[in-house]
Amino acid sequence: MKIRIFASKEAMGSAAAVNGAQIIREAIKARGEANIILATGASQFEMISALVKEPNIAWDHVTCFHLDEYVGLSDSHAASFRRYLKERFVDELPQPPRAFHYINGEGDCAQECDQIGNEITRRPIDVAFVGIGENGHLAFNDPPADFETETPYLLVELDEACRQQQFGEGWFPTLEDVPKQAISMSIRQIMKSQVIICTVPDGRKAAAVRDTISGDISPMVPASILQQHERTSLFLDEPSASLLEDEP
Hints:
The chain is α/β, with parallel strands linked by helices. Helices cover about 30% and strands about 20% of the residues. The chain has a seven-stranded parallel β-sheet, sandwiched between helices. Helix 7 links the parallel strand 9 and strand 10. The two termini are about 15 Å apart.
């Protein structure tokens, strides 16, 4: 795991985007296409804002996969990750991507998991853009995460810490409004990505960052599994890296 620390969120996001954009360009040059995974949430604001501005990417040769989505939330809701990706990513690109496989959590969730799972298993993923939750989750795989299942997408229960984070970030008016279930890409599916770019700002993530990097690999800290991925780069700002100062 490669760790990079920046003085600001903006510098962090820009560097992560530059890194990811180069991987996309190289994949298109080598195979004529690229396949990517995109996360959402407050941690991805700066990275996505910079990525859509990266030059010389043939986005019409890029297929995108959605990392996770709430169950039962309309895409018109302010917290919808489909809405987030459409407004912050797709609508800001100079040209539409070849395809974007959004997760729809409003209907038959088992069928949705199967359908999008079938799509992603047909393609090699060149780069996954992800974050880490305050509880150490990776996607919506809250602790204790399932490190074993090969199923690409899962229906998961959101724990209290995860739901509290979503409320605390201002996505919902009350904690009770935060959904209790989501469809999430599984841990093993994320780990199949050739490259993982993990962008984690803010001091409230500092303990999770420390445990991800320095602790044991454990389902109780889902993101700790990234220690086993040779091509993971962790992009941090100074607050999120603050508890690493005493590490050897």
